[in-house]
From TrEMBL:
Organism: Vecturithrix granuli
SMART domains (alphabetical): AAA
Matching InterPro entries: AAA+_ATPase, ABC_transporter-like_ATP-bd, ABC_transporter-like_CS, ABC_transpr_MalK/UgpC-like, Mo/tungstate-bd_C_term_dom, NA-bd_OB-fold, P-loop_NTPase
Protein name: ABC transporter related
Any Pfam family: ABC_tran
Gene Ontology MF term list: ABC-type transporter activity; ATP binding; ATP hydrolysis activity
């Protein structure tokens, strides 16, 4: 097991053709601590710097500025073998001239592990990943999903202090994806090592990880548990990127006071959300400015739960999403979506809905920062 610390880590890819292309800032001043034994997911859209971060930790990519520490030691100048970090790639990186069995056993062989022990460990990992039947096959004869599981097995069999997984499920079909995801979680619980898992799939990140680090445009946006990201997103990007179905967001909203109560009002007054008294400070600071208002579909419903406040909308559109329903109402041309039980009757005209005023989120209209959080970006 090992703690991994990134201190002000920066990566610039220098353009080789200086006249034609510009340098690429792939990772900007990244400060992040992955605790010993933690399962951390690096989540973000394509090109935000996730893989580059992983490759710098493994030692496959140089660091432009900053320091990476593994178990308290600065490893910037260490080669990958010295770091005891294993990585499973999205693009397999298997030896094509070796069978699956040989690919899996290779690193144990290099460590002079006895052949019987290699056989035992290979069989064990193959059983976990359901690849026992292809142990004697070469990678070129395997499907993408099978190659991906072999790549995963090869990283896990080393029992490294840190295991890095770069989109390890991307080529698996839905059923196998779920099954392998559960296996990865089980393996982590069994080996209790530090796992860093790169994905652009928020459901995968939230399902697997103890904490999720959200990146965008080379920058860390927030690190937190699923509850923190869901209920206290650091900014509009995190609020919008994390959460399914997506959050209702209203740019150009205003804050108002009426009869002693505070309200956040969407454009054209389509929806007036009452705010809890604790938000009074925000009203004082932002009364004359526009804000971005957010509320998750999970915090609005058809039932008046204790503390919920009524609101009405018209002309609802109902979608059946399996376990629950997804209802969209509109008012003054603005949609508002909420979760409902799966078996409600479809509504067409005026409808009463209820929301939790504690869960109304307000963001600065320019910086996008959550106005209720007094936090630092880098944790
Ligand atoms: N070897 C390289 N040379 C130049 N630019 C690169 C190189 N590798 C990555 N980049 C650029 O650095 C940025 C970050 O890329 P990176 O692969 O780390 O992102 P990512 O979040 O992992 O994306 P994806 O999910 O698509 O893999 C991108 O703009 C990418 O084009």
């Amino acid at each position: 097991m090992a703690e991994v610390v990134l201190r002000n880590v920066k990566k610039i890819y220098q353009s080789r053709q200086k006249k034609k292309k510009e340098d690429v800032l792939a990772v900007k001043n990244l400060n992040l601590t992955i605790q010993d034994g933690e399962f951390l997911a690096l989540l973000g859209p394509s090109g935000c710097g996730k893989t580059t971060t992983l490759r710098m930790i493994v030692g496959l990519e140089s660091i432009t500025e900053g320091e990476i520490l593994i178990d308290g030691k600065v490893v910037n100048s260490w080669n990958p073998a010295q770091r005891n970090v294993a990585m499973a790639f999205e693009t397999y990186a298997l030896y094509t001239h070796l069978t699956v069995r040989e690919n899996l056993g290779l690193c144990l062989k290099a460590k002079n592990v006895q052949p019987q022990e290699i056989e035992k460990q290979v069989n064990h990992i193959a059983e976990i990943l359901k690849i026992t039947d292809i142990l004697n096959v070469r990678p070129s004869h395997l499907s993408g999903g099978q190659q991906q599981r072999v790549s995963l097995g090869r990283a896990l069999i080393r029992r490294p202090s840190v295991t890095m997984l770069d989109e390890p499920l991307s080529h698996l079909d839905a059923a196998l994806r779920l099954e392998t995801r559960i296996e990865i979680k089980r393996i982590h619980q069994r080996v209790k090592g530090t796992f860093i898992y790169v994905t652009h799939d928020q459901l995968e990140a939230l399902a697997l990880a103890d904490r999720v680090a959200v990146m965008n445009f080379a920058e860390l946006q927030q690190v937190g548990t699923r509850k923190e990201l869901f209920e206290q997103p650091a900014n509009v990007f995190v609020a919008d990127f994390v959460g399914e179905p997506p959050i209702n967001l209203y740019y150009q909203s205003t804050l108002e006071e009426q009869d002693g109560e505070l309200y956040a009002v969407t454009p054209q007054g389509a929806y007036r959300f009452q705010l809890v008294p604790q938000k009074r400070r925000l009203l004082e600071n932002h009364q004359k400015e526009k804000v971005t208002l957010g509320i998750r579909p999970q915090h609005i419903g058809l039932e008046q739960k204790p503390g919920y406040v009524p609101l009405s909308g018209k002309g609802a559109l109902f979608e059946f999403l399996g376990e629950y329903g997804y209802l969209t109402v509109h008012n003054q041309g603005l949609d508002l979506s909420l979760l409902t039980p799966a078996d409600i009757e479809s509504h067409s005209e005026q409808i009463d809905i209820f929301y939790d005023p504690h869960k109304v989120l307000l963001f600065d209209s320019e910086s996008g920062e959550n106005l209720a959080l007094n936090r630092t970006k880098n944790i």
